Amino acid sequence: MRRRLAAGNWKMHGLSADLDEARALARDTATARCERLICPPATLLAPMAAALAGSGVLLGGQDCHHTASGAHTGDVSAAMLADAGASHVIVGHSERRSDHGETDDQVATKAAAAHAAGLVAIICLGETEAERDRGQTLAVVSGQLAGSLPDSASAVNTVIAYEPVWAIGTGRTPTEAQIAEVHAALRGALQRLLGGEGAGIRLLYGGSVKPGNAAAIFALPEVDGALVGGASLKAADFAAIVSALDSSG
Ligand code: PEP
């Protein structure tokens, strides 16, 4: 059984005052059956860990360096995230791939570093609009998956998030059939790459998930939850998505 996961990516949003949103989410989803995860900016990890202590809401970083420590000004290692209270880290988000030129190889080394530090790596992948228009979606995401998965990946330490680049922060989403097609392809690829472990790895959908479309997305086969950006910033919206996830499982 794959436990469902609602993961919130706060991106470069959030000051100390916003810890109240995290507290409200914890309070409003206290009886949730799915896993709840917030990935705040690194500056908020430690105070959020303190604010959410005992609530069951998990914490994650948004990126990590591929080495454990060293002369890398401005970077944060997976061990540092764990030390601040994180259990998860997002790697290979499309904004990292586009803003910082991260390649599949680099994403794989970051995921391996996350595993070495005892973190669950949420590996993101997804096609651009031009790639979809050219009919390359399945080839692109399968290639990203094969290139971004480290040898250390297992059902326990790895989550895959399918996030079409053109759906992130735009209010646009693929059709239900398109999401189902990609998730089925990713499940098949995971099983070919990792055998039985591949059947246990959770597959999240991400890209403009909102309270109004969450239930339809969560009803699709091979969708084990969501990676949520904008709608995770407001406790009421994220709580509604958590509730939709619980109702669908
Ligand atoms: C994301 O940041 O991963 C994301 C899916 O953003 P949004 O939900 O705002 O599209």
Keywords, please?
single chain; 249 residues; alpha/beta; TIM Barrel; 8 strands; globular; binds phosphoenolpyruvate
Instruction: Evaluate the radius of gyration.
Output: 17 Å
In one word, what is the shape? globular
Bound molecules: phosphoenolpyruvate
Instruction: Report helical residue fraction.
Output: 40-55%
N- and C-termini, Cα separation: 11 Å
Largest sheet: 8 strands, parallel, barrel
Tell me what portion of residues adopts beta-strand conformation.
15-25%
What does this structure look like?
By secondary structure, this protein is α/β, with parallel strands linked by helices. It has one domain (5-67, 74-248): TIM Barrel (Alpha-Beta Barrel), CATH 3.20.20.70. The chain contains eleven helices and eight strands. It has an eight-stranded parallel β-barrel with strand order 1-2-3-4-5-6-7-8, surrounded by five helices. Helix 1 links the parallel strand 1 and strand 2 (35-39). Helix 5 (104-116) packs across helix 7 and helix 10 packs parallel to helix 11 (235-248). The longest helix is centred in the C-terminal third of the chain and has 19 residues, at 176-194. The relative contact order is 0.16. Residues 9, 11, 163, 168-169, 206-209, 227-231 line the site of phosphoenolpyruvate.
Summarize the structure.
It is built from 11 helices and 8 strands. With 249 residues, it is an alpha/beta fold. The structure holds phosphoenolpyruvate.
